[in-house]
Amino acid sequence: MVTAMWKMFEKAGQPGWAAIVPIYNYVIILRMVGKPEWWVLLFLVPLLNIVIAILVYLELAKSFGKGAGFAVGLIFLGIVFFPILGFGDARYVGPGGRGSAVPAW
Questions:
Q1: Of 10, 13, 3, which is closest to residue 82 (Cα–Cα)?
Q2: Between 78-87 and 68-76, two packed helices, what is the crossing angle to 10 degrees?
Q3: Which of 69, 77, 83, 103 could be stapled to 4 by a disulfide with Cβ–Cβ 3.0 to 4.6 Å?
Q4: Could you list the residue range(s) of the whole structural domain that residue 58 is in?
Q5: Rounded to two decimals, what is the model's pTM?
Q6: Which of 30, 91, 89 is nearest to 59 (CA)?
Q7: Do the domain assignments include residue 80?
Q8: pLDDT tens digits, residue range 5-31?
Q9: 71 lies in a domain?
Q10: How many domains would you assign to the chain?
Q11: Residue 104 included in any domain
Q12: Which residues of the chain have pLDDT under 70?
């Protein structure tokens, strides 16, 4: 999982080593999906963390051009689906799949 997340972070233009740093890796994932970094605190609240994780994984799948079915795979079979993102042909397309973090004015 660490190796898969390392590769996934690198695809998104983030430092790969962040995959091995507890809590900071969640900050990086939140950046990748375009959510505020303070959401990392929501991962510390019991039961709410499950809801937040589902929302973040849905956005993570979109950020790599995948759909809701892939997000379900990330949630229930992460050990299979994270390596698909890291080592497969999935490309990072931007936060939430919108292409770029810069708004189109």
A1: 3
A2: 120
A3: 83
A4: 2-97
A5: 0.86
A6: 30
A7: yes
A8: 999 999 999 999 999 999 999 999 999
A9: yes
A10: 1
A11: no
A12: 99-105
